[in-house]
Each structure stands twice: as structure tokens, then as C-alpha cells.
## 1
Amino acid sequence: MKQRQEKRGMAYQIIVFIFISLILVFAAFIGITRILFSHIMMDNAKETVSHLANETIYQIENRLTKVLDISRTILILYHNNHFERKKLDALLHDLVYEFETLEAVTIAYAPSSYQKGYSRTIFHSQNKAIYRELQPADYQYLDWFQIPFELESKYWTEPWYDANATKETVISYCIPLFAEGKCIGIMRLDTELSALQKIVSPLKLKHSGYAFLVSSIGTIITHPADSLTFNESIFSLAEATNDKQLRQIGKKMINGDIDFVHLQNNAVFGDSWLYYAPLITNNWSLGIVIAHEDIVGDLNLLLIIQTLFSVIIFLTISLIVYYRTLSISRPIRLFMEVANKIGQGDFDAKLPSTGNSYEIDRLILAFETMQESLKEYIQNLEITIEEKNRIEAEVKIASEIQRKLIPENTLHPYGIQELRCYGILEPAGDIGGDLYDFFPVDKSHFLFVIADVTGKGIVASMTMTMVSTYLRTVSTYHYTTGEIMQNLNNFLCKQTSASNFVTALLGILNLKNGKLEFSNAGHTPLIIRNIDNDYKIISETHSSPLGVFANMVIGSAAITLEKGDEIILFTDGITETMNPAEDFLELKGLENIITELNSTNPEQTAVQILQKVHSFAQNTPQKDDITILVIDYKK
């Protein structure tokens, strides 16, 4: 009887010991898992939402930017045809009919202006552009006229219903018209609000995620709840619920901030996360809401499964240990012999039955721990492999996105007959740090740029993406290469580390007279090749690389191109190409290649240069990105 109680006591002690140990291990494991996976899921959710928001903002900005571009065209036409009413009306008629983003164009003069009686609107209706006369009484007290007229500055309106013309809810871009230094009226360009709402409304995330737009004064423009649209602002909702956090978020949204915040048990949005980012063009803000449960739902399910699995393991181990303890009957000597076999590498050796032996119990626990560690190692290895595959997939996606940033090679880019362009970019890896871009600034000026960021990989690719996007934005407001480069340098100093500096060469070509203004920020030289195959190397630089020193003054230089001149731009991946003997091509080697060219267009020039560079390398692994951009000025 005493022996029986002793055996029960040992089994009880072993089970209690294992129970406490496993409870602590599983509790720690579950806690650490929850913390780590929570951070990972939050980071993934933020990244996903930010990508979705940026894509949506890009679509909206693209539409609004088209309105801005059209406004510049109309303004030029207005000043050129100011006193030819029929001709100007015909031009406006064609623009309204041609551009679907443009719902209506209105020219409204002040009652005191000498153009009184000439106010009119041209709007799109049933696939036709319709002309309608306006009287000052129709518009002189409306916000779209009064605000820009009094401020004498450009103005984006809040959404409003155009009862006189389109019978649609629109937003308008209003531009003051001046004569002899005095504001005489307003030119208004309308675009349909419903087009913007159609971009935002379909957005869905997980089970309950959605997007909404907020105007520059906080009015809710679009929201899944129709009762909120145009009836509430983010501030009125904050006042109604006495929500200080929501009020603060509203201030940040209209101030153009970007953030990803947790709204805990919010009366309007519930327990959710809110990501918001600004629309630069008209100071609106896009918000994306995703329920907290949608983010952590998978984690909770994982923890439940993990807990059940842990309980099953614990119960199984407890029963095995209990019955194994009761069945121990072999002497210590037999156990030691088996232990020696295990020590010699026979891990399949079967442990003998034994009495209440502390040493054997500890050995069994150690063996079981080893098994658990092996399982955990295999699980971690599988997770590592999955993560590696995910990263490789994301790198491929990043590579595709980077290639889409490069303009498409066409015979005459953007329909410009005065020049031809052709570019080649060969990254050293899946994604690179080189970039080239070109686009018209206006009808008379064409901008091109080639750049190289230090290093390779995702960081370099992201930096190049920021450079490309920022250039297209800042070039709208600055018309000299020095100003554009200075703004780009200050932007990079704020957004990137000094170790990721960028060399760049940016030029603006006057299509009418061939004048080329350019700025070189630590980049490789500019080469001009004429129709006689003579060439000139311009090695002048105007600053150190961008992204290192803020507020740096960047100069520029100018030359005049002749008909048939080719502008040849390249990155140091060309001159630093090595052959098997580890000799560099250098600038001298590139000059020899240019001397031997027999090309008659930019595509032939770029392809021949690349072929000769590869021929020099003789299949030596490429260590740096290779980029070539050739522009042929036809005058």
C-alpha cells in the first residue's frame, strides 16, 4: 500500500511539474507570438492601406491635375484671343468636347468690367458642348466667383450644384482674369464630383474596410453611409460625440498630415484604424477605415488553434508520463546500459521500465523537450521559407512598378514632332537605383532627367520613385533647372538619409529655339553629338549630389542645339563597366564608342552604345545599373 501511494505521489509530482512548466512555456510562447505577430500584422496593414491610399490619391490627383493643365492652356488662349469672342468660344467649345474630365468652362466678368454682357459658360451635355450666356445676377454673389475675385488668387471650390448649366454636383477650379493689373472676372473649370466619388466608393478592405473623402474644411464628400455625405463634417461628428481625438484628427487631415491611428470604441468609426493622407492639388484628404477585428482576426484564430494544440500536447504528454511512471520496474543497471547506448548515438534505444527514479524522469523530460525543440525549429524554418518567398515576390512586384515609372519609348514622345527620345535601363539586380524620365513642361519646353542613387535594392528603388513623382509635381511650379534641382535636393534631405544621396542631370529644352538649360548635380558628363558625328563633352557640374546638404544653391548652364543634334545621357554603370581583366571602360572608352557610331536616330544610338558596352564586358557580371537616354533635336 505504501509503495502504491509512493508511485501515485511521483506521478502526481511529475504531472504537476510538467503542467506548470508547459503552462509557463505556452503562456510565454503565446504572449510573444501575439506581440510579434501583432506588430507584423499592423505593419502589413499600414503598408497595404498606404499603398491603396496612394494609388487612389494618384487617380484623383491625375484627374485634378488634368484640370490644372487644361486651365493653363485656356488661360494662354484667353490672353491670345481676348478680344476675339467667336474664336475664343470655338476653342473653349473644342476643349469641353474633347476632355471628359472637363464638365464645363465659364468666363464670368465683374459687373463693372467693360466686358459686361460677354459672360458665358460652355458645358458638356449628352455628348455635346452647349453654349449659354450668363448675367452678373446669376453668379456675382456665389462663392466660386466672390472668393477668388476678392482674394485675386486661384481657388478650388467646395462641391456645389450647378443649377444653371450642367445640373450636376461639381467642384470648380477658379482663376482670376486680369486686365491692366485689375481683376476683371473669373474663369471657372468644372469637373464632376461623381467621378471622384466613383474612384473612392468601390474601395473595400477585408470585411468592413472602406474609404471616404474630406474637403478642405472637413466636409464629408463621400462615405458608405449616405446620411453623412454632405450632411456632416468630421468636426460636426466630433462635436456630436464629444470626441477630442476625432476633432484633432480632423485638424490634421485638413492641414495635410499623414498618419495611421487607432480609434478605440469610436462612436462614429467603432474600434478601428484610420489611415489618412492629403490630396495636394485641392487640399482635400482621403481617409481609409479598417476594423481592428479585421486586422487582428487572423491572429486571434491563430492563438486559439495554438492554445488548443498546446492543451492536446499537454494532455497527451501527461497521460504518457503518468502510465510510464506506473510501469517502471526495471533496475537502474539496465537503465544505465540503455543510457550508454543513447550516449553512443543509438537514439532509437528503448528506455527500460524503472521505479521512482528522478534521473530517468529528468532524462525523459529532456528527451521530450528535445522533440519539442525540433518541432519548433521545423515550424520556424517553414515560417522563414514562407517569409523569404514573400519578400522575393514583393521584390518582383517592386521591379515591375519601377519599370512602369520609366516613360514608354515612342517615335515622338507625347506627340512632340521636334524631337525623338529613346531610353534603356538595365538594373544590375531585380530592382535598381537608376532612373530616367522625360515629359513636356508646357507647349514650348521639354524636361528630361537622368539620375543614379547610391546602392541598389528596395531602398534605392523607393528613392527613385520619390524622385520621379516629385519631379513631375515640382516642375509644374518651377521653370528653371536650378530651382527644380534645389527643391528636389531639399525634399530628399527631409525624406532620405545622407547615405542614399542621388546624382542627377536635369535639362529643359526650348523646342522653339533649341536653347538647352541644364543642371548637373555630381552626375556623369553630358555629351552632344551632331549630324557629322562630331561630339562635345560637357563635364561642368553645378553642385554636389542631392540629398546630402539642405538649402544648397544649385546653378545651371545653357547651350543652343542645332538641327539634328543628339543629347546623350548615361549613368556611371557605363563608364564603370569592367572586362574579365578588371579594366574599366571609363569615359575614354565611351568616347571611342561614340566615334564609331553610324546611327541616324536615338534608338540606334542607344542600342549601339549598349551593344558595344556589353561587348567590352565579355559576359563579366554586371555590378551596377546601366542607363542610357538619347534625345534627338529635330527643330
## 2
Amino acid sequence: MKKLALIITLAAMCLNFSSVAFAQNGAADLVVINANIRTMDAKRTVASSMAIIGRKIRAVGSDADIKPWIGPKTRVIDAKGKLVLPGFNDAHVHFMETGNQLASVDLRDAKTPQEFVARIKAFAAKLPKGRWILGGQWDHENWTPNNLPTAGLIDAATPDNPVFINRLDGHMALANSLAMRLAGVDKTVKDVAGGEIVRDAAGNPTGIFKDAASYYIDKVIPAASFEQKLEAAQAATDHAASLGVTSVQDMSAGADIGVYQELLRQGKLKTRVYGCSPLADYERWSNTGVRRAFGDAMLRAGCLKGYADGSLGSTTAWFFAPYLDAPNSTGLSMADVLTTMRQDIENADKAGLQVRIHAIGDRANATILDHFLAVDKTNGTWDRRFTIEHAQHLRVEDIKRFGSQKVVASMQPVHAIDDGRWAWKRLDAPRLQGTYAFRTLLDTGGVLAFGSDSPVAPLNPLFGIYAAVTRRTTDGKNPNGWLPEQKITVDEAVRGFTWGSAYAEFQDGEKGTLEVGMLADIIILSDDIFTIDPNKIGDARVLTTIIDGKIAFEAK
């Protein structure tokens, strides 16, 4: 026993000596010096230098502390006093759609129906006949009056190209007459549960399809080839790197996991991906033995996403009371919410898969919180990290349930400053008290995981931080913030885009902070967003993005 103890002691001494020798001999592959490093750890440690070996952070401290790690082959980045943060983690994104939108017509900021049509016409002129026009991300709330577009508005601009373009929330889309003819849609087609075909006074479809009704057009859109998907994924990962986004949680990955896998095999994937599949797929995943967060640090699966309702912008978010501007409607609940969803959540949870449910209206959120609570009682308490995606409009009494039930609120701050332009038309003052309740959710023990919902909103996390801190609506009409009592600090907003998002995907022990042993996902910013005028946070830029210890982006 004494001999064994001596061997262990000598081995420990050698290991310690080896670490020191590595540092003295310049073992670090990459060192960042002269920096303002906000580690975002629990103590909010601030440092000026760090050393990286391979994929991991090996030392964090002062320039003097890290100097021994610099050797002849070490790449040294002089940050010149700039702010260094953990790489951003977008907790809610549609990554493939983001890549597709980068190559599609951009209608997000079209200020009038005339500009909307002109952009579509110019884009269609560049396409071969028969090519579908998709994406778009239009917003009729930019227009006065804010009437929904119709097929008749765009038919003359697109005589040879079928069109099915999304409203930016993804919960309704506009088809032209050619697309409806290809789909066989006319006044005889009936609505489906969880969806609506908007019709004129004579009962004819206007071209607007809400939520589940989009199926009628979706089914005739040609599937993208694997090569086209690879191009979209490449565009998305390159774009993400330029914005300091080193991780994404893809809410619509589904079968596209294989696309990311191929990009990873080629050495071109610059973004860590956690891919979600539809909740209905739980049995398929369960049968394979896959559990939540299955995979490696770059590509993982095992989360399932369901839908409880639609969106506020499409008046399909599900509320207890009617909309102010649609007094005959409380929105739409998805067909399975009050039928099979609770059992599906229970079965998926029992199989060890993570469940994340889209809920926007107050009734949708309350219902999903009830489902989660029931499953927790049935399956027993464990570290399941149930997540509600969006959690936008909550009854005041339901806000504290996120903390008490340990349900993650996966939210997108840019939606708040976008919706704040017109949400008051739809919701009365009492309901607005629980709208985008960042401050109250944190104060009652909730965990915020921030994202963008790209391509619904821009992928840039700096816009999200600006939105959470200032709550200044995009129309400039709320300079002191819309519902300003729900503002949070820069530290809390950055935490939501780093540690909080990592927590939502069971990776808070691997990334989200700049601590020894964590993955070397690091960004350098042009400005110190902690000290500049908060109104200028959105103007800051990413200078350098490092993922896995390798430089993925450098600003020119």
C-alpha cells in the first residue's frame, strides 16, 4: 500500500510539473492578451488574458499569469483592450431557413404594399419560370392601413413563378394565384384544425394561409435537394460566425441533422448545433435509444418541439380573452393541445428526451405549464429542463411558475421591440403586464435562454441584448422603453445569450462561460457594451469569433 501511495504521489508531482513545463514551454495553441475578458461565470470574474490548448480554455488571468503559456508556436491575439465574451448561443433559431432566407427576397422592412410588390417583382425577374419564391419575412404591420396582402396584389408581378412567402412570425404566409392553382385550392377547400384560410366576402381564398392551413400549399412545394440544403447550411453557419454566434438550438432541424453532419465531415461547420425534431417523432427517437443531448460538442440531438398555438401578429396566439381588434376570436390552439399532447410529453419525457413547446398566448402558456406539472408528478422529478419557447404573454400569476416548476423561458428580445409597435391594439393593459416579462421572470427564479427566432428576426444577438436592455420599439415611439419595468441589465441579457442558453441545452458545464476547462468559444467585440450608451449596443460589431479554439471569423 505504501508503495502504491508513493507511485500515486510521484505521478501527481509529474503531472503538476508537466503542466508547469507545458506553460513554460509555450504549450498554448492560442493566447488572448490585453483584453477586457468578462468570463460571465457565477462570480462575474474579469480577466485580461487567457490560454487555449486544443478545444479548451486552460488558463484565465492577468497578462503576467498567461505569459508563461506563450511559446514559439503560440498564436497571440492582442485584443487591444476590447471586450471579450463567451460565444453567443442562440436558443431558438430555424437555421436552415436562415440560410435559405439569405438567398431569397427580403421583405422584412418593406414599408408599403407598393414597395412589397416592387421587391417581389424585381426578385422574380431574375428567376427561371416555374421556380418557387419562398421566404420573404414580410410584415403588414409596417403598412398604413395594416391590411393583409392578397394574391391579387402580387399576381401581376409573378405570372410565371409560384409564390408562398412567410409573414416574419412564420405563422401565416401569402400564396399567389398560381401557387393556389397548383395546390388545387379554391373556395371548396375546408379549413383544418389549428389553421385558417383567410377568405373574401364570397368565400374565395385571398391567398393568406394561417398556421396548419399552410399544409395545402406546402405539400406541392418541391423538396430541396441535399446539395441545396448544404448550400443553405453553409450560408447560415458563415453568417452566424460573423455575428459571434458559436452555438444554435435549431427548432426545426428534423431530418436535416444529416446535412449538418456532412458539413461537419467536410470541416466547414462553424456553429455548434443542437437539433430539435417535432414532438410527434418521440417514438422514433425513443426506439433508437437516443436520449436528450445525444452526440458530441459540435452536433447533438434529442430535443422535441411541439406547438400550442400561433402568433400575436397573425392573431393565432391562444388567449383566455378575445383580441381587442378581433373580438370574436381568442386565437387558435393546435389540434393536439387538449387531446394527445400531454400524453406525448409524458411519453417523450419518460424516454429521456427533452420537450420544448411553443406557446405565445396566455392560455397556451398556462396550459403547457399545467401539462409540464402533470408530467413531473407522473414521471417523478429529475433534471429534465422543460422549456417553453417564446413565453411571450403570461398571466401575472403564471410568471412565478417558471421558477417554481424549473421551466426554462426561451425568449427572443427583438420580438418585444417589434411587437411593441402594435401589441396594444390587440391586448388590454392587464394582459400587457405579463408581456415579455424578462425582469419578473428573473426576479421569481426563472432561467432566461435568449435567441432570435431567425429568420423571423435578425440573427444578431447584439440586437437582442439592445432590445432586452432598452425595450425601445423599432418605430421610435417608446424612447424610454415599452413596458420599461421589464427591462433587464446588460449583464443579465448577455447571460441569457450565453450561460442561460447553454443551460437550456444541458451544456452549462461545457460552454457559456470563459472558465478553465470550458470549450474555447470566444468573441471579441468592437465596443464595451457594458459601459457604452445602451442605445448604441446594437451598433457594436464582432471583430473576431473563435470556436473550438480556432478562428472562425475575423472582421476585415
## 3
Amino acid sequence: MGDAGRLNNDNLELKSINTIRMLALDAVEAANSGHPGTPMGFASAAYVLWTEFLRHNPEHPEWPNRDRFVLSAGHASMLLYSLLHLTGYGLSLSDLKNFRQWGSLTPGHPEHGHTIGVEATTGPLGQGVGMGIGMALGLRRLSAVFNRPGYDLFDSRVFIVAGDGCMMEGVAQEAASFAGHQKLSNVILLYDNNHITIDGSTSLAFSEDVPARYSSMGWAVKHVLDGNNLAEVRSALSWATEPSLQTEDERNRPKFVSIRTLIGFGSPAYENTAHAHGSAFGAEEVRKTKINLGWPTEPSFLVPDDVRQAFLEKTGKRAASYKTWVDLSVRYAKAFPAEAAELDRWRHSEKIDGPLKEVKPYLSDPKGMATRQAFGEILQGAFKSVPGLFGGSADLAPSNNTLIKGEPACSPETPAGANLHFGVREHGMSAIMNGLALTGYFRVYGGTFLVFSDYMRGGMRLSSLMKQPVLYVLTHDSIALGEDGPTHQPVEHLVGLRSIPRMTVVRPADANETLAALDWFWSGHDGPLSLVLTRQKLPVLGQISYAELSAGVRKGGYVLRETSLPVKIVLIGSGSEVSLLLSVSDDLLAHGVGSRVVSMPSTTLFDHQPLEYRRSVLGTGIPRVFVEALSPLSWAPYASESDLLIGMTDFGASAPGEVLMKEFGFTREAIINRIKEQFKELF
């Protein structure tokens, strides 16, 4: 490893690189918290990328054809914050000095929507790799759908910086395998190969040849042996971004550049050690590091005038691509007005009023259909009316009903294809969907079984944190799925999803509640939706009009039916158990007991309703019964000690679904008996 950057601050480039290093070092020291090592080790490569290759414009940070920079190694956030400050994105020195403090624009890990210039919320290692690949997939599809000869409206690249931890995480592996198969040639992954993690050397737990692994997955690979050798870094980035420098085979592959760096570069005590990863150095070691790199020991947060001017000049040159694109887009709109209008609809899909108004509500039908089947039917109509609708399944399309009929698969040969096959990669799927959504042009959906939402939780949590409109289609929603047994039968999953802040969870009772939920979501909801659907058929309910039902779904819970006799008990459930409760209500009426049946498709929406409304639905001062063929913990906030909660408190079993529902007590007779036992005074 060379000594570039040591005692060479008469060289403006090296002074600029050391400015990045010292801003990170000072910020972590001021906070007494953070990760200085990677910003110090990767500063040279980041400098070359941001000043010579990344197409970006601080004055228009969200212009559609910008290159995306995703810091998957999100713990190295001060690398990104230093670059955003130096290139004019509005982060002040005061912001850097407030690193990791309350209310600052420089949180511990990059947060999308919080700091201008941050493309994705990263921190959970490997997620940024998946999101960057999702962005690249989306940008490729935009180019396939909207570009025209001589009008390359979309030709941007995605640069991902990932470290050894990202390489170990399964989500990155899943997404990288997908990218290799899809031949996403517009994604460039820069691997900060520093051989250090929190525990120490990567040799403690990690000995594989990572570049060889990526090569085996279909990536074109280049090695940079010294991350401080600017000529070597430039050569690798030129190769990664210039097709004329690539072989014919390399042009059609995603690019992987392994850059050997030294974590904590320049620190006499901590260079190439685990301490540099995630700890402040201490005042004395900061002083020694600055001396070692030929940097003034005072003041802290120094940005030399010539460095600031050089960064702004270089950034101005990089920003010139924005004006070129704006001129192109104006000419495009004149030459292709229909395509330009459709692109605008994709960009502003949240403004579409009543996206499913052409889909007719379902007629009352005691035989009914599974809600997964209803979703599949609704999806066909939605594809024609919801701008930018795009998605697929984790190798479960026939079960999730996520296929758009008559449309091709999205592939290297047909990049505009509407059907996306993620393969058996739930974890990677959720990250890729987030990346697609972050492009700003797609209404994304992805399907799997509810029980496998466990594999997606990291990505689902980030969907919620970033408020991205991602639709999770989660079928086979209870023990009623049957013979596959307890490994596939969800019990605790609904509770877990409902506990994620900003995640809306809807478990519809029939086809019309499914339609109402999707119409609400695709009308511009801000944030993700988990749509929880049945394998088994459910009656299409006809107790109230579709308009009343739709309004009730949007409130999360509503009164579906009240009997003619005065209400003595309230029956509350979601999904498949709502039609069961209607039959229980009939039986109670035969016993002279009046009841109210409440459909609660979404506790997460219901919780946002005024207290008066919630009380009017759930009732006060009368017995209540809550029923779901899943964990009953979701009902705890609504129930009193005297109420009856009927649910699953153990795993299921392998048997036909109707047998399981009977054996576990989800029948009209079993519930009536439980009510008689608990509320004897009613009979």
C-alpha cells in the first residue's frame, strides 16, 4: 500500500483527499462516537469518483438522470457528509460539527429524506447493495420504455460503496446474484476491501475470494491493488464507466471493483486495526494522525480555501450534464408528446385519483374466492391504470397471483417486461423493491408467503423508515393454508408487521376489501403496505354497499353488521375470520342474543382514527370477542380483562386447512361454546 496522502499537502489533490479524512476524524472525535476508519481509508477513491465520474448537480439534487451514489457501508456516513459539504449540497460545517446530535442533518447513518443528497437509508449492512441494484434495474426499465433513438433520456449509473460486512450479509449476496442474472450493466459496486471488521481481521470469520464470487455470479471484475494510487483508481473507474474500454462480454455485466484500502489510513496507532472501525481516536491520536498526514493540528474542521474552491469547480463541471439533460428532455417532449406525458404520469403516480375506478366491485357470493385470487384479478386492471406499476414474486408467482397476463418477463433481452422474477430471494427482493421505489417512478409490488416475511423484515423496516410506497403481497395468511404444516403457517407474523412504525397492514375479509385496500394504497399513500391474503376461498360479503365498505377499510375497522336485537356483544376479527363471525352472529341471534360484527382489516389504520370513532365501532361497556387464526397479541391494546381473545398461542400442524381450523377452535360451534363459557349472563 502506497503512502499517497502522507506529508504531501502541497499537492492540491492530496490536500483535498486529506480534507475528507480530517473532517471525518474531527466529526467523530467531537461526537465521541462514530466510524472514522472507512472514510479515512476510502477517501482517495471517493474523491476521484465524486469529482471526475459521478454525474450530479447539488442545485438540482433529484434530477431524474443523475447518477446514484449509495453508501451501503452506512457506518461510514462521515465520508458521504464530508463530500456533500465540499461539493455544495447545503451541509454546513456546523452540520458536520453536530454529527450524531439531536436534530442534526448528519445522523449516525445516512437517512433518505432527512439529508439532501442521501439516496437511500443505509446502515444495516448489505441493504444498500440491494437498493442500489434495485435503482439500476429501475433505471434500465425506464430507458427501455421511454428512450428513443437519439433521445437517451435515461442512461445514468448507480455507484455502490460496500465493505467487508456488506459482502458477508446474505441480502447483498441475493441481490448481487439477481443483478448478475439480469446483466445490469449500469451498476458499479466499489468494494472497500480493507480486511477489517469490528471483531478484528476478516480472517477470523471470512476467507473466501470475494471478487471470484462476484465473477461467478456474472459480474465483470477489476482489482485496484492500492486504493491511494489515484492513477490506478482512475483507470478502474474509467473501465467501469466507459464501454469502449470493456470487452464485449464485460459490457453486458454489472461491474465489481475491488479496491484494497487501509482502514484508519494515517493513524500511527490505529491504521489497519479494528479500533479504527467504530471508535473515536482520542485527542492525542487525532493530533498524531494530523501530524503524520502533514495536516495542521488546529483548528478542527479545517477546509483550506483552495480545497473548497477546487471542489466547487470540479463539481460545476460534473453538473454540466444536468443542463444537457434538460435540453434533451425539452426536445424529447416536443418529439414524443405522448411518451413525455406518460413519463410524467409515472413520476407523479400519487396524483392519480381513483386508480381502480374501472375495476368493478364483486357481487355478493357465498362461495366467493380466495383474497389472493382477488388480488390477481385486480392486478390485471391495475396494470392498465396505475402508472409505473411493476413487480413480481420470490418464485411464487402462481401462488401469489402476481403475474401480469400476456406480458413478458423482465430480462436482459426484454428489459421493458412487466413481470419480475426475483427468484427464491425474499431478503434481496425487499431491498431491490426499495431501490425501485427510490427512483421515484415505480409503484412496486412483490409477493411471497406471509411466513417468509421474516426473511424480508430488514427491507420492510427500511421501506417504512423511508416512507416508500412498496406493496408487500403476503399470501397463505394463517393455519388454514393447510398441509404444508407449521413451518409454512404464520402465527406471530401479523403482530410483528403491525408493530413496524409507518407500515400499514391490511388483512381483507373478502375480495371487495382487497379491492378497497388497493384503491386506497394506489391513490397515493405515503409508505408501504403489507397486504395479507388467504389461500382458501372466502365468501364475498354483501352486508353493506361497496362505498360503505370502502370507507370502512380506509378507516381500518368498521361495523359490518348489527342484528335486529339490541347489541349485547361485539364480535371483532379480520380476514377469513370475519365471515366466520357472521355465522357466529347468526347463531347468537337464534339464542336471543343481539350482536355487532366488526371487520378490522387494518389495526394500523384504525389506530389513527379519532377516539370517538374507535369507541363507536368497538363499543363500550359490553362484552367483546376478538378472533384471528394467528397470535392474539394484536388485540391487547383494545381488550379489557373481561373480553375474550381467540387466537393461536402455539404453532400449527400439518393437515387440510378445514381440519386445522376445527381442531384449533376456529369454527362457529367452538366459538359459540367459548362465548357461552365466558359470558354466561348473556344466555
